[in-house]
Design goal:
By secondary structure, the chain is α/β, with parallel strands linked by helices. It has helices at residues 3-34, 71-83, 101-112, 129-134, 161-166, 191-216, 220-226, 234-239, 249-259, 276-297; strands at 46-53, 55-56, 68-69, 87-96, 118-127, 139-142, 147-149, 231-233, 245-246, 267-270. The protein has one domain: 2-enoyl-CoA Hydratase, Chain A, domain 1.
């Protein structure tokens, strides 16, 4: 086959691939709007139910293959509820262990700045970054047996140096910068490195405490005393003022309806956060960049970037 013909075929195939992605995103958006029931709901007597279920972060899937709830997805869902006159209040249905500190704080700010009352219901788990996000709601209701809290910060670091030594593996790196391989699994941390990383974690923890104290109108010293990475049941969380009440989803919906000024019966619609076309394309480009990076990286030693973990609230 001639070179020019190959180029033409490649362009056609690439164009069809991109067109198919655009069509998938368009159909996703159309489906989310058509299933929202916004148009048929009577004005002012509806509670929008928005699930926040899964790990909080960026992109569409985590390294373990689990679904990700991103700030953009939650912003889009809450914006839909805000822009519809039939919706008087919002219920965020939380079942999440947390995730990225930055993404969690972004979601928290979206909830905090909502133009309509927001109630969070914690079903099974509302821990760490998920609790951080929930803390800015007007009210928090938790299932009595749910797991709530885990207010803390962790930076996992793995030291496999003894394993490598025992198995005759000589792993190292060529670096520029004293701390560039900090956290690499082929050596333990130095005292200076431990102090540096502990300082980062302590700062993030203090920031976490300040946010919860402000959102829940609690004294900072008191918040720190009940934090410490502790997990509480929903009932215990109410006792220590991390939530406002306990009950099932119906109870939480009732609270949301009341805050929205709805009297009597009310409708419930579900707005499921969806990635949409932009996130699909962003995720695709990230995967392409990752593949290119791996192609380059295979010619080098796998280094710090795979072993070092930034502070993660979960």
């Amino acid at each position: 086959m001639k070179k020019d013909t190959k180029i033409v075929i490649s362009i056609i195939v690439g164009g069809l691939f991109i067109l198919s992605l655009l069509m998938i995103g368009f159909l996703t958006l159309v489906g989310s709007f058509s299933s929202s029931k916004f148009d048929s709901a009577p004005n002012g007597d509806t509670v929008a139910d928005i699930p926040l279920q899964g790990e909080i972060g960026y992109g569409t899937t985590s390294s373990s293959g689990q679904n990700i709830i991103s700030p953009e997805m939650m912003q889009d869902a809450i914006s839909k509820a805000e822009s519809d006159s039939s919706v008087s209040s919002i219920l965020i249905d939380v079942d999440s262990p947390g995730g990225s500190p930055v993404a969690s704080e972004e979601i928290m700010n979206t909830i905090k700045n909502s133009k309509k009352p927001v109630v969070v219901w914690i079903s099974d788990v509302g821990a760490s970054g998920a609790y951080l996000a929930a803390s800015s709601a007007d009210k928090i209701i938790a299932s009595p047996s749910s797991m709530v809290g885990s207010i803390g910060v962790i930076m996992p670091i793995t030291d496999l140096s003894k394993y490598y030594e025992e198995n005759g593996i000589n792993k190292s790196s060529i670096k520029a910068g004293q701390y560039k391989d900090m956290g690499a699994d082929y050596r333990p941390l130095t005292t200076a490195e431990k102090n540096m990383l502990q300082g980062i974690v302590d700062k993030d923890y203090d920031h976490f405490i300040n946010i919860v104290s402000e959102n829940r109108h609690l004294d900072k010293n008191y918040t720190e005393s009940i934090a410490q990475g502790k997990i509480y049941t929903g009932t215990q969380a109410k006792d220590v003022k991390l939530v406002d009440g306990t009950g099932g989803k119906t109870s939480a919906l009732d609270v949301a309806a009341k805050l929205g000024g709805i009297k009597g019966n009310y409708n419930v619609i579900t707005i499921s956060p969806s990635s949409g076309i932009l996130n699909i394309l962003n995720n695709l480009s990230s995967r392409i960049a990752y593949s290119i990076g791996m192609g380059i990286g295979n010619n080098l030693e796998n280094g710090t970037i795979n072993n070092f973990n930034l502070p993660s609230i979960y």
